[in-house]
């Protein structure tokens, strides 16, 4: 199986720009966010590798080495670390929580390779509006896009979006049979609080039916920013969020328990565990579901 690396410095040539207007925003603290036009996605040098999931579903992904990531972000620290707080949030690495989230979605929505190839996918994800926060490779979002959802992708680093997420989306959509189409994607880069503010200001507040995120609650500080964004863009009263994470993040302070406590203390959403992996060979992992309380439903009828 071949890995592939990305040409960080050669942008893809494109036809006329069909993207929506790209927005930028910033918070009072000067933290910025922006929409990234898909034409800024970069070319790949080699064939992608394959990630095999449940039900024989397979997705393509790229590989960016630590050296390439450090060069792309001009951050030498990345050669020795998967995380540089507020500079790089681990987007170039495929985390096991993202694979867990894909397998959860496959099981929940009964996805098969055959369904994902249909012109009009007969899946319960078709027509849903999905956002993947902290997307990195974007595999959970790509799975939803293949299943007929409209998907938007967000990562802290624009370089992750242009050199990994967009090429991965393209590679997987290119595997569809001739004449089979899917909804276009949109891409956003920046801090969660700034991204949430920007989306709310430009028609995406309370917009998404489903929000997906994996390995993003590794610290208490990141949890608060993530929850702030979620509350701005999740659609009431039936929108849901799936958070895939390790039960404990040793050395950085985050845990599923601390995030659950944060959500409960905030009081807007409910939080329950819907999936777990405890195989004795790796860290215990979970998927948490966030949703609005049923009591608010009558106010939206």
Automatic annotation (TrEMBL):
Coiled coil: none annotated. Its EC number is 2.1.1.85. InterPro entries: Methyltransf_16, SAM-dependent_MTases_sf. One of its GO terms (biological process) is methylation. One of its GO terms (cellular component) is cytoplasm. Gene3D superfamilies: Vaccinia Virus protein VP39. It is an enzyme of class 2 (transferase). PANTHER family: HEPATOCELLULAR CARCINOMA-ASSOCIATED ANTIGEN, HISTIDINE PROTEIN METHYLTRANSFERASE 1 HOMOLOG. This is protein-histidine N-methyltransferase. CDD domains: AdoMet_MTases. The lineage of its organism: Eukaryota, Viridiplantae, Chlorophyta, core chlorophytes, Chlorophyceae. It holds the Pfam family Methyltransf_16. It comes from the Eukaryota. It is found in: Cytoplasm; Nucleus. GO terms for molecular function: protein-L-histidine N-tele-methyltransferase activity. Keywords: Cytoplasm, Methyltransferase, Nucleus, S-adenosyl-L-methionine, Transferase. Belongs to the methyltransferase superfamily. METTL18 family.
């Amino acid at each position: 199986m071949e890995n592939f690396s990305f040409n960080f410095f050669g942008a893809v040539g494109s036809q006329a720009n069909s993207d929506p207007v790209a927005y930028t925003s910033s918070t009072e603290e000067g933290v910025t966010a922006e929409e990234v036009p898909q034409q800024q996605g970069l070319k790949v040098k080699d064939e992608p590798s394959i990630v095999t999931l449940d039900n024989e579903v397979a997705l393509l992904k790229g590989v960016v080495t630590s050296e390439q990531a450090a060069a792309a972000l001009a951050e030498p620290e990345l050669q020795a670390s998967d995380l540089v707080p507020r500079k790089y949030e681990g987007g170039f690495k495929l985390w096991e929580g993202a694979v867990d989230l894909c397998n959860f979605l496959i099981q929940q929505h009964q996805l098969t390779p055959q369904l994902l190839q249909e012109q009009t996918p007969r899946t319960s994800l078709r027509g849903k509006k999905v956002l993947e926060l902290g997307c990195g490779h974007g595999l959970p979002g790509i799975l939803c896009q293949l299943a007929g959802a409209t998907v938007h992708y967000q990562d802290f680093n624009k370089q992750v979006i242009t050199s990994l997420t967009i090429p991965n989306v393209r590679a997987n959509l290119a595997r569809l049979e001739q004449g089979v189409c899917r909804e276009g994607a949109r891409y956003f880069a920046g801090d969660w609080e700034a991204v949430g503010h920007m989306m709310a200001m430009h028609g995406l507040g309370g917009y998404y039916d489903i929000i997906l995120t994996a390995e993003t609650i590794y610290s208490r500080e990141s949890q608060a920013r993530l929850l702030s964004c979620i509350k701005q863009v999740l659609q009431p009263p039936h929108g849901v969020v799936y958070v895939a994470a390790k039960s404990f993040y040793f050395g950085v302070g985050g845990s599923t328990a601390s995030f659950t406590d944060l959500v409960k203390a905030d009081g807007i959403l409910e939080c329950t565990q819907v999936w777990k992996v405890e195989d004795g060979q790796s860290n215990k992992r979970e998927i948490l579901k966030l949703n609005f309380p049923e009591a608010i439903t009558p106010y939206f009828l």
